[in-house]
Design brief:
This protein has about 250 residues and is mostly beta strands. It has one domain. It has one helix and 15 strands; from the N terminus they run H-E-E-E-E-E-E-E-E-E-E-E-E-E-E-E. It has an eight-stranded antiparallel β-barrel. A four-stranded antiparallel beta sheet has the order 3-2-14-13, with no helix packed on it. The protein is elongated and about 65 Å long.
Length: about 250
């Protein structure tokens, strides 16, 4: 809760201080823009079965229905968008982005697992609405390349205590390429909310999802791991240059 409050304060500060950076899209048919985002994400694993890697024990008979928890991320999200305007009512944008995306799940009553990946992304979106006032809907698709994976294990009641963590570059625990579909609602002054649904599982089902708890090795299986995210963002366009005043003779 404390982290969310701090992030909300930083976002509101950025929102207010960025107003002098805005340039109306109608004044620039084609333009580059920087993007700042806060992301809430979650994924439902369905039924989960946890195994002890060191003992040939049978899995939990019917599995445990996981409790997906919202994950908040304010760092590190960077993006550049290239906007092309067709007219006052339509346009498109593409670009590139760096995103921190993942999920938190309770595997049982005392075991919580946080898993995330950094990704490089390329979006393409169609903008429909009042482009001049930056009030429009953008419908699009995005492809993300997951290049750095990290997981943290927490043990105990409630949030638990951190017991173990691991990270790896180009890990095969997640699907390396993951496409998604999104709907983005821009409310003027370049603020937006984006709803996104990933088309592939976040986790690679062909790879053992192992982890360590108190120096013992375990792994788990799940029915699915489809990610969904809600993003609060801000588009910061280049500051318009003021013409120089010529000195009078």
């Amino acid at each position: 809760m404390k982290n969310i409050a701090i992030a909300a304060f930083l976002f509101s500060t950025l929102w207010l201080n960025s107003q002098d950076l805005q340039v109306k899209p109608s004044l620039k048919k084609n333009y580059w823009a920087s993007v700042s985002e806060f992301v809430f994400s979650a994924a439902d694993l369905g039924l989960v079965r946890v195994y002890d890697s060191g003992a040939p024990l049978s899995p939990q008979p019917e599995g445990v229905l996981t409790n997906p928890l919202p994950r908040f991320s304010a760092f590190l999200h960077l993006a550049q968008q290239f906007h092309v305007g067709f007219n006052h009512f339509s346009g498109i944008y593409t670009g590139w982005g760096l995103r921190n995306i993942g999920m938190i799940n309770n595997l049982n009553d005392t075991l919580r697992l946080k898993q995330r990946a950094y990704s490089l992304s390329i979006p393409i979106a169609l903008k429909l609405g009042n482009i001049e006032k930056a009030t429009y809907v953008a419908l699009g698709a995005e492809i993300e390349y997951m290049f750095h994976y990290k997981q943290k294990v927490f043990v105990g009641d409630g949030r638990g205590d951190k017991d173990n963590k691991e990270s790896a570059w180009f890990s095969n625990k997640v699907n390396t390429l993951n496409p998604s579909l999104f709907a983005e609602f821009n409310f003027g002054k370049s603020g937006y909310i984006r709803l996104k649904y990933y088309l592939y599982d976040f986790l690679n089902s062909d790879v053992k999802q192992d982890f360590e708890v108190r120096n013992k090795n375990y792994y788990f299986t799940s029915e699915r791991s489809m990610l969904f995210s809600v993003t609060f963002g801000k588009v910061l366009m280049a500051k318009k240059k003021q013409p120089r005043k010529q000195k009078s003779a």
